[in-house]
Amino acid sequence: MENKEIKDLLVPMKQKEDTSEKISSPSRTFLQDARRTFFKNKLAVVSMITLVLIIIMSFVGPGMNDHGIDDQDLSRAKLPARVPVLENISWSGFTGVLSDEFQGDTVEQATTNAISRYSNQEEFIDIEVLDEGDGSRNSAEVKATYHVYEAKDMQDQYYWLGTDTLGRDQWTRLWDGTTVSLLIAFIAAAISLLIGVAYGGIAGYYGGKVDDVLMRILEVLVGIPNLVIILLMMLVLDPGITSIVIALTITGWTGMARIVRGEVMKQKNQEYVLAARTLGQSNWKVITKHLLPNISGIIIINTMFNIPDAIFFEAFLSFIGLGITPPDASLGTLINTGFDNIMLYPYMLVFPAILISVIMIAFNLIGDGLRDAFDPKMHK
Amino acid sequence: MVRYILRRVMYMLITLFIIATLSFFLMKLLPGSPLNAEDKLSEEQQAIVLEKYGLNDPIPVQYVNYLGGLVQGDLGISFAFSNTPVTDILMDRIGPSAQLGAQALVVGTILGVLLGLIAAISHNGFLDYTSTVIAVLGTSIPNFVFAGLLQYVFAAELEWFPVALWGSFEHSILPTIALMIFPMATAARFVRTEMVEVLGSDFITTARAKGVSEPGIVFKHGLRNALIPLVTVIGPMAVSLMTGSMVIEQIFAIPGIGEQFVNSVMVNDYPTIMGTTLMFAALFIGIILIIDLLYGLIDPRIRISGGDS
């Protein structure tokens, strides 16, 4: 009995064509692997798409309405955001009305407060009583809604993100500011990349005395906090895009130089470099054709993290008054103006603050994604 | 070890000397003087004012005087607040900044370590993702955006905390939160990565096999080893606290060093700017030095030698 059962279990294997030599999937190069890993990372892909959209908008956005970046008109200053269609949805924030809660001893007093706050345009203010009050100090509360666009007789006008204190269109300024911020970040990152790779590459490749001298210089530079250098440079140079780029690049390349030097030192003793040299390649060719492609991953990752740093520092400088000067705008200056009006006109702060946050998050997530993508351990 | 410390302190002094020299000559390039047009001074009076600031001397003499003053802790006299030495201004204002920085660093690091710990224990679970999201937001979103959000929501709308100014402990809560987000997020990310790695290593398996309790494994064996590399990120944290102090003190109108710096920039008060810059530089370099020394002490694998560091 038992023997029979075991015999049943042993089924003869069918003769098939020889498959043992077949490769299960096509072999991929490192870069293909990296690309696959990157595109599998949903967050990184979403960030990439968001960023591309923001970059496109920063070019297209200012032209989407006919308000210029410096079209000042005090009569239409501090208008809230108003967008067609969305203006009919009361909670959207794009309704083109200002509203706030006002207190007073009685309802009438609170109402008077509200009306005087909104330029005495009584017929354009809706009053909603929240609390009747009992006559004691500030016990009554009303909610006032001021229809600014009607009051200014501009029903046919739409400022999608409102206007600032000088009546300039925030939509136009926001996207123009984004262009400036991104431009500064990209140029600063690119220059840091060039200097850093060249400096680190030379130090690492030639080694010896050259390396010693270059590294001592670097050590002194790294010792000086970059915040201090950036602030000093901004004080001396005329404010503007060029000086911000200079200030950021003076300190920005040191990190890259250190990393590249380390990598080059690791790679230059590998067999493929020896082979290339034996075959008579010049130093320049060895560096550009053989070494650089092999350390490109780490360079790309480092640059991706340099860009948000540059965006932050630009915004920081503009915020403390050392950056971009009016009438030009950057995300930092817009946020700075927003802070001056945070209590009465919060919309001036909200939009640039959201945009800069989204940009920073996107860059960081892409950087994380790239770091995983270039890490062979993460390849499946 | 002693030789190493001495060498590092020497380097530090040289760096500070370079910064002092650099800032002195850069400031000399700039226009502006303690004189202003509103005072309508006669030429004699102008000469007296310039004499008081030592601006009549040739620049090399001014430079030597400046360095001489520095050695004695004299940073010069402020242009904006006449007759007030810069050292006094900075001393007046160091209190709020130090309190804010210390609170943010301590609370932020502790919360960050806890967050990272929770994330590592529930590896790939819901709590892990939540704390990762918090960490990404915290490292990405600029601290002034946080400050604005906190100020608007918790001070202006909910009225739980004072909107601005300095005084009681309540005044310091919102600025501390705004300032601590970055240290917190950085620490959380770091501790999570390290903990995941440590918890997967052989000695943890050994400890488990020997019957060490789960809290014992996490805290005694895991966290202790994961915390060592955290020392390396104190540098970036210090930078974020300094930039943060300028922005956040400005937003919350706190009379600290950062706010003084921004205001001095507005009115071209060069002696104060130079003094503040030097102080920031000294602080930063000092912190880096302490970190390097600490690192050698904590981690026995790193031997500090007289050679390359």
Automatic annotation (TrEMBL), chain A:
Domain of life: Bacteria
Chain ranges of the ABC transmembrane type-1 domain: 178-367
Pfam family, one: OppC_N
Keywords for this protein: Cell membrane, Membrane, Peptide transport, Protein transport, Transmembrane, Transmembrane helix, Transport
InterPro entries xref list: BP-dependent_transpt_permease, MetI-like, MetI-like_sf, OppC_N
GO biological process: peptide transport; protein transport; transmembrane transport
GO cellular component: plasma membrane
Subcellular location, principal: membrane
Membrane topology according to the record: Multi-pass membrane protein
Membrane-spanning segments: 43-61, 180-206, 213-235, 241-260, 299-324, 344-367
Compartment(s) where it occurs, according to its Swiss-Prot or TrEMBL record: Cell membrane
Family according to the record: Belongs to the binding-protein-dependent transport system permease family. OppBC subfamily.
Protein's name according to its UniProt entry: ABC transporter permease
Naturally occurring in which organism (per UniProt): Oceanobacillus halophilus
TrEMBL record, chain B:
Spans traversing the lipid bilayer: 9-30, 100-121, 133-153, 227-253, 273-295
Pfam families: BPD_transp_1, BPD_transp_1_N
Cell compartments where the protein resides: Cell membrane
Alphabetical list of Gene3D superfamilies matching this protein: MetI-like
One biological process term in Gene Ontology: transmembrane transport
Xref: InterPro entries: BPD_transp_1_N, MetI-like, MetI-like_sf
GO cellular component annotations of the record: plasma membrane
CDD domains: TM_PBP2
Alphabetically ordered keywords of this record: Cell membrane, Membrane, Transmembrane, Transmembrane helix, Transport
Similarity comment: family membership: Belongs to the binding-protein-dependent transport system permease family.
The protein's name in its UniProt record: ABC transporter permease
Domain ABC transmembrane type-1: residue ranges: 94-295
Membrane-topology annotation of the record: Multi-pass membrane protein
